[in-house]
């Protein structure tokens, strides 16, 4: 496959705003490892090879274990994730797969329980961002290097 376009070159100002959104989300106080788990899981669901490659590398650099990265698609059955992380992963799947049903109340309330209103808002914005990046990468055929 050949890359269709380089979004950063075609719309540099818009691309810069996406990067600014990422930096703002990173400054909210969310755990960087949690953010990488969100990015990996959403990218798995969306099938974004570029983002999977990038975020699994980033997670490893932050000390994330191979086991936790490899079994992330089966997080419900794996003993490697805390209850707080399970709440994040459930929210990740619900926001990424809206399926016309929205985010179930119990998933939203569980995120609120662990993260409060501000933290849950930051998580939702992080999910909006990674789903946006996935769609950019997939539609432009951005290839992992």
What's the layout of helices and strands?
Layout: H1 7-10, H2 12-26, H3 32-46, H4 49-61, H5 66-70, H6 83-96, H7 105-140
Helix pairs in contact: 2-7, 3-4, 3-6, 3-7, 6-7
What is the structure about, briefly put?
The protein has 145 residues and is mainly α.
Architecture overview:
This protein is mainly α and 145 residues long. It has one domain (11-138): AhpD-like (Up-down Bundle), CATH 1.20.1290.10. Helices cover 70% and strands 0% of the residues. It contains 7 helices and no strands. It has helices spanning 7-10, 12-26, 32-46, 49-61, 66-70, 83-96, 105-140. The mean pLDDT is 97.
Which range does the strand content fall in?
Answer: under 5%
SSE order, one letter for each helix or strand = HHHHHHH
Whole-Å distance between the termini? 13 Å
Low-pLDDT windows of residues: none
Main β sheet profile: none
Query: What share of residues is helical?
Result: over 70%
Please, how many domains? 1
**CATH architectural grouping:** Up-down Bundle
- Helix/strand structural class: mainly alpha
The CATH homologous superfamily name equals AhpD-like
Radius of gyration: 15 Å
Give the integer mean of the pLDDT values.
97
| Number of alpha- plus pi-helical segments | 7
Q: What is the total tally of β strands?
A: 0
CATH class: Mainly Alpha
Task: Label the overall shape.
Answer: globular
Which fold name is given in CATH as the topology? AhpD-like
Which labels suit this protein?
single chain, 145 residues, mainly alpha, AhpD-like
């Amino acid at each position: 496959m050949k890359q269709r376009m380089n979004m950063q070159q075609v719309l540099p100002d818009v691309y810069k705003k996406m990067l600014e959104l990422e930096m703002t989300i990173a400054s909210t106080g969310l755990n960087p490892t949690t953010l990488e788990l969100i990015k990996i899981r959403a990218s798995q669901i969306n099938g974004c090879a570029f983002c999977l490659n990038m975020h699994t590398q980033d997670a490893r650099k932050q000390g994330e274990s191979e086991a936790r990265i490899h079994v992330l698609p089966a997080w419900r059955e794996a003993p490697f994730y805390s209850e707080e992380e399970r709440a994040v992963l459930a929210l990740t799947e619900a926001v990424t797969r809206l399926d016309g049903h929205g985010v179930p109340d119990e998933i939203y309330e569980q995120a609120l329980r662990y993260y409060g209103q501000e933290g849950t808002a930051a998580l939702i914005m992080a999910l909006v961002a990674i789903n946006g990046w996935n769609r950019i990468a997939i539609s432009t055929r951005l290839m992992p290097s």
